[in-house]
Write a structure and sequence with these properties.
161 residues, two-stranded antiparallel ribbon, 7 helices, 5% strand, elongated, mainly alpha
């Protein structure tokens, strides 16, 4: 399968931690909104259709909806889909576009869906380790975090337009 080359093409320097964290902040706001929409659709759409309003209200008051593994799975999958779509098509989430950074392969091509999955899961692991996988960028010679190393991708700083 031919590789999808990202535009603009060129040899760009690695992005620093500050820009990455700023993009993560922007994207976290979008992820929060996405999680809220998925939760609303699940609870007010699917569960209401299955149980009805009265039983759903009683379940909510009893705390039965507090730890729903299906909802957690739906939110997790929707967040992965959000990142995978942006990373595999143009290499940038909305937060990355604002801060002019892009994830790509070393040759400038878009990452694959498999790389996006590895990147996403490793980034989640990095956060559970108090962000150590991100702080790793400060000591790495190539300015790569854990998720960059394991997905064999890089984050580059794009030039101003």
């Amino acid at each position: 399968m031919p590789k999808h080359m990202l535009r603009p093409e060129g040899d760009y320097p690695p992005a620093d931690l500050t820009r990455r964290l700023a993009a993560i902040f922007y994207d976290s706001l979008l992820c929060l909104a996405l999680a809220m929409v998925v939760t609303l659709a699940y609870q007010q759409g699917l569960l209401r259709a299955i149980y009805g309003s009265e039983q759903l209200k009683a379940m909510s008051e009893a705390g039965a909806l507090d730890s729903d593994p299906l909802l957690a799975s739906l939110v997790f999958l929707s967040l992965f889909a959000f990142f995978a779509k942006f990373w595999t098509h143009n290499g940038q989430t909305l937060g990355m576009q604002v801060w002019r950074i892009r994830v790509q392969n070393k040759d400038g091509s878009a990452i694959s869906l498999w790389q996006a999955l590895i990147r996403f899961l490793t980034a989640m692991l990095s956060w559970t380790c108090l962000g150590l996988g991100f702080w790793w960028i400060l000591w790495d010679k190539r300015k790569c975090g854990w998720h960059d190393h394991y997905s064999e991708s890089v984050i580059v700083l794009l030039p101003k337009r």
